[in-house]
Amino acid sequence: MKDQPPRTQETQVEGITAVADRPPSMGSIREVVESTLRMNERVHQTIMDYALIVAIVSLPPTVPWLQEVQLGAVLVLNLVMVRSIGARWGFPRGQGPLARVFLVLGIFGAILSMIFAYLLVYTASLYVPLMLGWAKAAGGFALTFAIGRTANDFYLSARRIDPRRIHLALRLRRRSKRRRTAEVESTPKENRG
Q1: Which residue, of 4, 94, 130, 169, has the fewest CB within 10 Å?
Q2: Are 141 and 55 in contact (CB under 8 A)?
Q3: CA 94 → CA 49, 75, 98, 106, 173, distances in Å?
């Protein structure tokens, strides 16, 4: 486990500090998980915002000089979105080689989803002529959304919760439940109130 931090290092998550020497309580594990889920939700909102902006930028009709401007704006918006996602997660390090492979595959998948969305809407526009201008917007939305989700998964893969610490916390919780159950059973019935 070379990517895991040393046992004496303090971990910081959204203002929650936990010392690695002590086993975490169930409350602190819950706080870490809830914090991660809230952050993931905020990142998803950011991805949707950028994807809608890219779709709006791609929507106007294309004239020869405007197409290059739209393409440049889409590329810049995607780069700014990836940087924004990284900043929200704190630019974590420690992604393994497998995460990098999936990042590259995710970018290829994003390009394929853009092409598929463009062709799907373009094919529909052959039967409904008003939809022809939406093809680029659909492709840009699909590209930005897929790149955002790929970047989010890449940055999220560096955040790890040590499974040994979780097992230890669960074991301690089970022991305390057994003690409480034993105490309740050992007290006389008239004292249980």
Answers
A1: 130
A2: yes
A3: 28, 27, 11, 19, 31
